[in-house]
Amino acid sequence: MMAFVTGGMLLLLTLEMVLKYGFNGGEPVLGTWIAIVHGWIYVVYAVTVFNLWSTMRWSFGRVVLLVAGGVVPVLSFVMERRAQRWFDADLPAVLQRLAARTR
After folding, report:
1. Stretch 45-66: mean pLDDT, rounded?
2. Which of 16, 24, 75 is nearest to 45 (CA)?
3. Burial zone of 26 (CB within 10 Å; 0-12 exposed, 13-18 middle, 19+ buried)
4. 58 Rama class: left (phi>0) / alpha (psi -120 to 50) / beta
């Protein structure tokens, strides 16, 4: 869910940057709040990605791709689907590992 929120805010921020620097001489069009909100949402997204990555014990490359999803427009939507497939494939092994740890 955070990937969709972050991706939506990133698209809005990209629109603001295009309007601001392409058509308005550097003056904000939609407002400076967009960059601030995206920044804080990205922090929450990055913490969520790190938590998922460490719980699932995925490779470092996967966390880099997931984190990049918050800064490359549209990539968050692609990575959300890919992460869901990774999660579904790896979940049984993670649950088995956690069950063994509690015994």
Report:
1. 95
2. 75
3. exposed
4. beta
